[in-house]
Q: What sequence folds into this?
């Protein structure tokens, strides 16, 4: 059995861009002009044996004359009359495209996905009422998708935007619901809301097959989610156990009267640990990009992050770091700065004159965000590690919200809303993260044990973050 979704909108609203995001592959042509898509194209979304879910990318509606609508109203079979008109794709491209879209919906669609520009005022769109009349004549279950929302939104802003469209379209019974689904910044959770909504709208004979196909979609997205959490956990667990040996601290060092050798050791330790941290961030981000079937990593060799090469790592496109850093605030933003400088910005710039001497190396180590553990090694401080946790979760959100229709990472995607939500959730579990951090100085605890606990804790926290970002949506 084949279940068909027809993606339709006014021309140049972003159908093909959204299709790329939903399909996780490059399809069609994306250009900033009208009637780029000139034929109805079918793409398989999911397939299980003989059953498949197909997404149709259709030509956009062009401007349809109000007089034509009046003529159609006067006939007994308006759609058949409209389709019976013979037009040329070259001389009357607007009507030609509209006819192809209508024919696809009439003959093929089980569900219509009507895409709208969220930032437009529906009361002032001259074509909206005409296109609604046509969809009304077709009388297929229709879900309105709000595109071009301008980036991740709070649930309150999203609700306000939806209500604006609900109020304008409440007279059209074939519009079953309205969902925000921006082709650039949607998350798989929002796609899940769409797929959960579709099931009850299908005929009974299709619902069992659809549930199987939807389950396959869920299983794949959960696999990506769990694999992503594991990558975050590996990165953070390595940070817990990352350490550098240093010499014994003499009494003069403690008083800040040493010969400076210990200061050099701490500076070198900080720089090398920062380079390793930055490389782990690069590797983790590339893995997230790969898992989400995106593009953005480079095959070029990463530049060494040294004082003479204060530049963004080339293994990850600059905009990825901008996306992550742009979403961070406070200390997390300072951590990004420190990584990009190869550990030489002294995290937040709070060296407090320690480099100049006169301050004990305990305070100097704290300025580098290092703490001395057992066996004369230094490791990241508890607070620095907790900032790494925040940054890791921000990294996941940045990748998980990046629609493939947007192409390779080219624009900054920042959201204070993400940062605040992460802080709220992590604040509830700070003690658990502190306990995991402490295991890095405990010889009786293995790295594998810490990884298992870290994975479970991150999975819990990220699930709570997603639930706060998308309240009311069934995720798991």
A:
């Amino acid at each position: 059995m084949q279940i068909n979704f027809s993606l339709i909108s006014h021309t140049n609203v972003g159908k093909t861009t959204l299709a790329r995001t939903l399909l996780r592959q490059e399809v069609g042509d994306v250009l900033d002009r009208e009637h780029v898509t000139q034929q109805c194209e079918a793409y398989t979304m999911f397939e299980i044996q003989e059953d498949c879910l197909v997404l149709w990318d259709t030509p956009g509606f062009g401007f349809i004359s109000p007089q034509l609508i009046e003529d159609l109203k006067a006939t007994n079979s308006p759609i058949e009359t409209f389709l019976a008109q013979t037009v040329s794709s070259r001389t009357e491209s607007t009507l030609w495209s509209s006819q192809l879209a209508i024919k696809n919906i009439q003959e093929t669609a089980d569900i219509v996905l009507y895409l709208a520009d969220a930032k437009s005022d529906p009361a002032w769109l001259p074509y909206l009422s005409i296109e609604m009349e046509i969809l009304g004549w077709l009388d297929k279950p229709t879900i309105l998708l709000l595109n071009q929302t301008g980036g991740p939104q709070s649930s309150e802003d999203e609700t306000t935007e939806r209500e604006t469209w609900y109020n304008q379209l409440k007279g059209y019974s074939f519009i079953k619901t309205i969902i925000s689904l921006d082709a650039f910044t949607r998350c798989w959770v929002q796609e899940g809301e769409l797929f959960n909504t579709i099931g009850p709208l299908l005929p009974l004979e299709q619902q069992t097959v659809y549930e199987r196909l939807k389950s396959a979609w869920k299983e794949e997205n959960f696999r990506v989610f769990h694999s992503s959490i594991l990558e975050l956990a590996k990165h953070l667990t390595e940070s817990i156990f990352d350490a550098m040996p240093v010499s014994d601290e003499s009494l003069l060092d403690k008083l800040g009267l040493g010969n400076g050798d210990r200061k050099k050791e701490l500076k070198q330790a900080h720089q090398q640990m920062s380079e390793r941290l930055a490389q782990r961030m690069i590797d983790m981000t590339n893995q997230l990009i790969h898992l989400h079937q995106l593009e953005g990593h480079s095959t070029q060799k990463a530049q060494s992050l040294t004082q003479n090469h204060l530049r963004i790592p080339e293994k990850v496109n600059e905009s990825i770091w901008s996306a992550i850093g742009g979403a961070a605030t406070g200390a997390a933003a300072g951590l990004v700065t420190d990584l990009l400088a190869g550990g030489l910005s002294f995290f937040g710039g709070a060296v407090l004159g320690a480099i100049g001497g006169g301050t004990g190396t305990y305070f100097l180590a704290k300025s580098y965000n290092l703490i001395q553990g057992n066996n004369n090694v230094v490791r990241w401080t508890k607070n620095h590690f907790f900032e790494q946790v925040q940054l890791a979760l921000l990294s996941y959100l940045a990748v998980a919200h990046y629609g493939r229709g947007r192409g390779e990472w080219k624009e900054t995607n920042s959201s204070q809303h993400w940062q605040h939500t992460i802080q709220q959730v992590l604040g509830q579990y700070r003690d658990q993260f502190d306990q995991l951090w402490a295991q890095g100085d405990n010889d009786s605890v293995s790295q594998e044990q810490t990884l298992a606990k870290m994975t479970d804790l991150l999975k819990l926290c990220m699930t709570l973050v997603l639930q706060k970002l998308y309240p009311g949506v069934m995720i798991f």
The two ends are 27 Å apart (CA to CA). The chain has two domains: 2-186, 224-469.
